[in-house]
Design goal:
alpha+beta; about 40% helix; 3 domains; binds zinc ion; three-stranded antiparallel sheet; Arc Repressor Mutant, subunit A
Length: about 475
Amino acid sequence: MNYEAVIGLEIHAQLLTETKIFCGCSTRFGSEPNTQTCPVCIGMPGVLPVLNKRVVEFAIKAGLAMNCKISPYSRFARKNYFYPDLPKGYQISQYELPICEHGYIDINVNGYTRRVGITRIHMEEDAGKNIHEKDCSLVDLNRTGVPLLEIVTEPDIRTPQEAALFMKKLRAILRYIGVCDGNMEQGSLRCDANVSIRPEGSSEMGTKTEIKNINSFRFVEKALEYEIKRQIKILRDGGEIVQETRLWNSETGRTESMRSKEEAHDYRYFPEPDLVPLEISHEMLEQIRATLPELPDEKIKRFVTDYRLPDYDAQILSEERDIAEWFEEAVRLGAKPKEVSNWILTEIMRYLNETGQEISEIKLKPLHLFELLNLIEKGTISRNIAKNILPEMLNTGNSAEKIVQEKGLTQISDTSELESLVDEILNRNPKEVQRYREGETKLLGFFVGQVMKATKGKANPKIVNEILRRKLS
Ligand SMILES: [Zn+2]
């Protein structure tokens, strides 16, 4: 029997606000423990929360970008549980009336579009952090009260690959609208997954497990692959899946049991009495809608139509807003779109990966690439030379022209100079000339190579080819 997986994701995105959700404490990352706290976020008796307006704006922005219905009336709720990193004994969240519902995100899976439903998006506060040392445990409350969005999908995802693509798309959208930096390693984007399996073609739901602690895109795929295999093996062996929460262990590459259903919390949710219900006016909604930038899907479509880029190029360029803008800047200067795309997708992205930099941080600016492409177009340098000098351009920010002049890399396009060089090479290789003339025409590459070697790659390949063909025929 073949099985298919049914996957739903629960994502926590930390919002890029200056201050916390219910007090004025800073949200800055990496400060000394317990330096960004006040009576409100450490839960002293008698204090009252004041809602940060920015958080509401960001939640609405995210909801609109994910095609959600924005509730004109929503409410905060108390989620009660005790843990040392939660001094007030409850987390303020939203429960039965979240701010956004019924949205979706489209993902492109191997060339076809899959729609993943968004069940809800709600606002909540983060808890603090427990730090376990050898002989004691410490609590840092800097993160207590940092605003989060919890984004819950429908169980529409069928494969680990789809889950990873969904996370990438979600991250791209959050970064486009500027509400979250999307850094999974630093924990500003966290993902839990619900997984069950069922016989292919069945519409029933199997028993699901929840996987926590997935903190990179690679692990989204790996953790799900492992968990699906584990569940299939249990069923094939005649066993039963136990409903439980499992923890992804990236070191062993396995999911491990954390707690069973019996140990699950009963949070005793109730409406938060210290905050009034939230009403969103039509004006506020429209004001926020007007601030939405062009989103990845629209950008991909525009790049394909306006610049005649292949779908693949448009997809990759649009994954990061900065890269898309860098691309468009070079095109605006007059460079050919497909040329610019080729250079970004290969050499420039490789450099970004190697150095861990963002495209906005590198020394190579769109103008530099435009100038480099111009030198190729004019025949001043060959494509190969251009490739060779790009690393220096990336490292120093020097213009192509400067490097070409300093190193004497100007392409040799002087026909008479190349003619005599070709004569010399043909004279030196009589056997190859004879073989070529007897029909072994692929030897042309050999002759071109010899000319390139003699000129250290500076000969204009187009002219060399013409001369060789003429002289050999
Ligand atoms: Zn505070």
